[in-house]
Amino acid sequence: MLAILNSKFARFFHLNKSGNSSKDTFPKILLQDLREFPFPKGRSNFEEISIIVDEILTAKKGDPNADTSELEKKCDHLVYKLYQLTYEEVKIIDPEFELTEQALVS
User: Fold this and answer.
1) What pLDDT sits at residue 59?
2) Residues 6+ apart with CB under 8 A from 43
3) pLDDT value at position 25?
4) Which pLDDT belongs to residue 60?
5) Which distant-in-sequence residues (6+ apart) come within 8 Å of 44 by Cβ?
6) If the chain, 106 residues long, is cut into consecutive pieces of 10 residues, what is the mean pLDDT of each piece?
7) CB atoms within 10 A of CB 94
């Protein structure tokens, strides 16, 4: 859940649901927001996401300024797959998404 809530998908969902489209604003997430958030029902990719989250936390524990951006991108990619987003939907959420449409579905 940590990875999902910290993903670009969750940020996009929350900002668009709340009507706050400011990208500079740290979204204030309330308990009601969590109740309404569409957590996935299946568990595919959860183990792989969990491993990446552990790697990020370990890196940050050793060095709070550690660059974990590549791991975060991998995590976002897995979240997109978890929600079965199309390439077009991903490009709306993450215009800088670097993978091809074929790589997203594989």
Assistant:
1) 95
2) none
3) 52
4) 93
5) 82
6) 85 73 59 81 79 94 94 92 90 86 70
7) 20
In this prediction the pTM is: 0.76
> Hey, what amino acid is at 59?
A
Residues 6+ apart with CB under 8 A from 35: none
Q: Write the DSSP string, the chain.
A: -HHHHTSHHHHHHHHHHHT---TTSPP---HHHHHHS---SS-TTHHHHHHHHHHHHHHHHH-TT---HHHHHHHHHHHHHHTT--HHHHHHH-TT--S-HHHHH-
Q: Which of 93, 59, 100 is nearest to 79 (CA)?
A: 93
